[in-house]
Design goal:
The chain has two helices and eight strands. It is of the alpha+beta class.
């Protein structure tokens, strides 16, 4: 299922849900410089809820933000997507925001 290309969600699709989350590390060099960023990740979630492929949909413009987002998301676990009461592979967008507090 490609849930990144659906205009109106089919009622029989249950999207994946995050069940364990690891926040990405904020790159020290960017933190010191006061730089914030946002990365849009496209991730493929398998039938067991693991992340098996990641693409950068929209880069932050900083390689270290992008790389740290990828490394963190690869550790996440999801409830898999369901369609017609069956577990399905699914592509989803995951926005990752690096914001200074």
């Amino acid at each position: 299922l490609d849930l990144t290309n659906i205009d109106s969600i089919d009622k029989s699709i249950i999207a994946p849900e995050v069940i364990s989350y690891y926040p990405p590390a904020y790159p020290i060099n960017l933190r010191r410089r006061g730089i914030e960023g946002r990365v849009q990740i496209k991730a493929l979630i398998d039938k067991e809820g693991g992340v098996i492929e990641i693409l950068i949909d929209t880069s932050s413009g900083y390689q270290s933000f992008d790389q740290n987002a990828i490394e963190a998301i690869l550790k996440w676990k999801f409830k898999p997507a369901y369609y017609s009461n069956e577990k399905r592979l699914s592509w989803v967008f995951i926005p990752v925001v690096f914001k200074l507090k």
